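Deliverable D5.2: sample structural annotation.
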Amino acid sequence: MTTPQEELLPGTRRALLHRIAVAQAEGRAPSLVAAVVRDGRAVWHGARTSVDGHAPDENVQYRIGSITKTFTAVLVLRLRDEGVLDLEDPLEKHLPGTGAGEATVAELLAHTGGLAAESPGPWWERTPGSLRPELADVLGDQAAPHPAGRRHHYSNPGYALLGALVEELRGMPWEDVLRREVLEPLGLDRTTVRPQAPAAGGWAVHPWADVLLPEPAEDFGRMAPAGQLWSTTGDLARFAAFLARGDDRVLSAETLCEMWTPAAPVGLADVVDGATYGLGLQIQHRDGRILVGHSGSVPGFLATLTIGMADDVAAVVLANCTSGLLTSQVAADLVRIVAEAEPRIPEPWRPLREVDGSVLELAGQWYWGASPFALRVTADGLVSLGPLSGGGRRSRFRPNGDGTWTGLEGYYAGELLRAVQRPDGSVDHLDLGSFVFTREPYDERAAVPGGVDPEGWRGIGS
């Protein structure tokens, strides 16, 4: 892949190179490779290595660990979109006898199924998958330490079950389904279940000495859907572009929006960290921006793919060391560097091609009680309603085709907005999930719940 690095300014490219150089040196990584994606295309690739000579490029494979989970989640969402399953189905409906209890498909995707974090027995990432040939070996006797749906508890076995679900419903191995339905359509020909040269070796770095120890590269067997894949910065850059925009050959942009949406209750520590989880994607708040993606860690390798959605900038960072390097922070910094040095240029404002007069009539100022709100008709065919100033409940609404609108976000997500008319056809008020918005504060002409004092507004001495 030829990376059009000239599309970034020289100062930006140097700042990116400086960031990964510091990360590789201070993190004592044998090698580190990174890529930046902007507007759906890779615009920068960088590498640092401890070995003299040619540094690894965008075609060298590294193990990506739990980024594999996002690929597995894509396969599950494809089954949902085809009507083969419902996300609220208990796993047992399609894959009986797993011991997963009442955990639903959605809960497994969001790590809220209550399952254990790891597989029982010897450390599964450093031992052959042949030690866990059946799903019962993956879960063990104490499969669910928490009630399903109550808390976010990261579970590697949960994604092993989702991989088995894909196999059951497709009638072929998980890796074959992945290749046919995701890797080939997206052109990810350097993403594989087993390493294909050129591939980096995995290393542990001694915590108190500058020496290395090779890590084993085991085949995870049943646990493969949780962390098996090998990939490159070139392929993951293309995958990041897909996650940001969608591709109807694989998943629509609408379904990917579901994946980015928080789906897991968070603990107090997660609130402090600004982190939550969607359906196969991690969601973080860093440096004032929302980052969506996934990290990965297996013995010998660290990996992060992250997307700054508002900035349309993504970053991939891969390293071949077991610990010592915070790839998620490095990736977040790469997004920040580009977003701040070269802010996204917005599309030109364009007016609506046509507008319904009855909708335009609703535009302007409204009052919820005495609080002023504004309703706007936007060029994307939506309407928005929110406070005129300060914080408060606000949302965009999509038209339903029958004169009503449905809320898209925040407190009003899924709530119905409608204009209530008087007998003469004029608009009396807006009804939003039983909240009444009137043209004047507590408009005595409108159907305000509880009525309006007949003496009206008055001074303090009245």
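Annotation notes: The CA atoms of residues 384 and 452 lie 27 Å apart. Residues 10-27 form the longest helix (18 residues).
The annotation will be released with the project's public dataset once the embargo ends.
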